[in-house]
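Entry for the shared binder. Reason: the reviewer on the internal report wants the predicted structure included alongside the sequence.
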Amino acid sequence: MKSIFAPFFLFLIASLFVGCEYFSTTTYTSKQIKQASEWSEKDQLPGFESCQDDPEEDRFLCFKNTISTAVTEALYAELLISNQILDQEITLNIGVDKVGTISLIEIEDAATVIDALPVLSTVLEDAIDGLPTAIPATKSNVGVAVDTQLKLPIRITASVQ
């Protein structure tokens, strides 16, 4: 019986010494993490499939123009009637998640505009929700899709009818 357990214990002890290298950890400073997380020229911005035939430097411009056109068309298609004179810029914070879903995160500086045009937020949300699924942004140094946010400024002007 003693001879059966001896090789097992010898193997167990040897595997502990050999296996220690698999338990080592690498520590990164917050500066290294921040530097690796910063956006670089090699990283890929989000885009739409319809923009992929454009030259690489124009793909993101096509992406932004597609969003801008969708929002503009939605605003012109809706009969918005204001109860006060407006000339104000609002900013849409738009998110593109890791799977390419586009959503309206927030409308900045919109309190006055929303008071004057109560359906505006619904029109903007519907316009963003109606966009096709995007190709998500990719962090090239790790090859992983990442969440991104864009800001789209919009000037709202209205006169009282």
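Summary line for the report: The chain has a mean pLDDT of 83.
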